[in-house]
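Minutes, project huddle
Topic: does the predicted pose make sense with adenosine-5'-triphosphate bound?
PN asked that the exact inputs be recorded in the minutes so nobody has to dig through chat later. Recorded below.
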Amino acid sequence: MPAVVTVRDLTKTYRFHQQGAGVLGALKSVVRRRYETRLAVDRISFTVERGEFLGLLGPNGAGKTTTLKMLCGLLHPTSGELNVLGRIPARRERDHLRRISMVMGQKSMLWWDVPAMDSLLLHKDMYGMSDKDFRDSLAELAELLGVTDLLAVQVRKTSLGERMRLELLAALLHRPELLFLDEPTIGLDAEAKARVRGFLATLNRERGTTIVLTSHDMGDIEALCQRIVVIEQGRIAYDGAR
Ligand SMILES: Nc1ncnc2c1ncn2[C@@H]1O[C@H](COP(=O)(O)OP(=O)(O)OP(=O)(O)O)[C@@H](O)[C@H]1O
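Predicted holo structure (tokens), as shared on screen:
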């Protein structure tokens, strides 16, 4: 099977400034800034094949989110090679963005003060979807995710589990081939987790969507991933079958 993601010696170093506590600390940092660097991802290499469901695992601060953000093009790598669907993700080319999507469990793509449908209509325009494609994709996903009755509800009035299902709907409306998920079940109760997992398994199996997921929940990994890559302190500690 052809690789849809190829990562070679990928490295990310953050440069940030340290500031002492209080007003004095703030004043000192204006006069003299102390910069530090942190090696978050350290020469990692792996590939993802079309149709795979890959789990990225590792302790807090291991570099999983940083890796995912580079794969989506939200962060520029410091060095190394990255090829996603034949493109360099950081270029964020429009036709490339139509083929990928990302959901971060702790961040929302939906506006909170309006019904989800308003945000979905904006997505329709952003991705240049025809009325028919929009209607078909919306109907199919809303049914699969069980959110048809929630589309007209103000997002801030939905529960965390309901909101995550709406986030997945928004992310998948344009039918991306490749989906990146950063802790999609974080904070959800057992029933909500099972529902999200069931949906992701169906998406991978029936639509053939390639999925790369990070999670601290072994239940997610066991239910979904055929293969895992374990990252520790920015380096790959294991790559193979679950
Ligand atoms: N914007 C930033 N500036 C400086 N350092 C950062 C920044 N973002 C992340 N880091 C550091 O990079 C390292 C990797 O962080 P990252 O968020 O990728 O880890 P993670 O594996 O996703 O962790 P978690 O499981 O806690 O979400 C950590 O040491 C973190 O403190």
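Observations noted during the meeting:
- Strands lie at 3-18, 34-49, 53-57, 79-84, 100-104, 178-182, 210-214, 227-232, 235-241.
- The first strand starts at residue 3 and ends at 18.
No decisions taken; revisit at the next huddle.
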